[in-house]
Specification:
Low-confidence stretches: none
CATH superfamily of one domain: Nucleic acid-binding proteins
Radius of gyration: 22 Å
CATH architecture of one domain: Beta Barrel
Number of strands: 6
Distance between the termini: 66 Å
Order of helices and strands: EEEEEE
Shape: elongated
Mean pLDDT: 85
Structural class: mainly beta
Strand content: 35-45%
Helix content: under 10%
Length: 95
Amino acid sequence: MSRYKKYSNPYSIDVQRYSIYGAQKKKRRELQLGDEFVTLVEEMDSEGRGISYRHNKKIIIPRAVPGEKVRVRVVKVLDNEVYVAVTERLAEPKR
């Protein structure tokens, strides 16, 4: 028993740490109305809106240009698209 002195309770050891199956992946939370996050505008669509991607969904950002870093709030969520509103412009695009 001297080998396990540092463990006050041997049953409280993190089992996942020593598992042969690896760590379990945490499930990502879906984007919901009102969520705020920071994103980098990657491209522009045909209507002049900025486009970004997050969790395999297209983020549509009005009045944003590629290369701009913005803080946005989710306004509308569809199957593969999320419409957002810009709350703050953090960095201008590099020229």
